[in-house]
Amino acid sequence: MKIANIIIRTLLGLLFLFTSISYFFHLMPEPASTGEFKAFQVGIVASTYLLPLAKGIELLCGLSFVTGKYMTMANLMIFPVTLNILLINYFLTPENLPLAIFVFLGNIFLIFTHWENYKGLFKAD
């Protein structure tokens, strides 16, 4: 389980680092989008803060996953982002769904492997 944990957190960390650094430094051209996804993307870009916020969280969590530090906080911070990645791909771009499923299930797996750290969040005092 420990080796699977290291492999998954490293793969997710590198993926998050790659996508966020590519976004901030414009290393890759924007893929052409069509249909409903294009309308959705125009709305996100028009908000001016949402995409940089998500990419900033991806950058911080990617660093955390690669180094193995602050994993509990990083898993919680990246969870809404991975859930949105999954749902956007499910409803708007199903051709990218396998990668989105890997990212989401990888996040769930990392939360599961660090479950002892989250038990306090679910106590009703």
TrEMBL record:
Membrane-protein topology: Multi-pass membrane protein
Domain of life: Bacteria
Compartments it resides in: Membrane
UniProt keywords, alphabetically: Membrane, Transmembrane, Transmembrane helix
GO CC field: membrane
Pfam families associated with the record: DoxX (PF07681)
Membrane-spanning ranges: 7-27, 39-61, 73-91, 97-115
The keyword Transmembrane helix appears for this protein: yes
Principal place of residence: membrane
Record bears the keyword Hydrolase: no
Protein name, UniProt field: DoxX family protein
Species lineage: Bacteria, Pseudomonadati, Bacteroidota, Flavobacteriia, Flavobacteriales
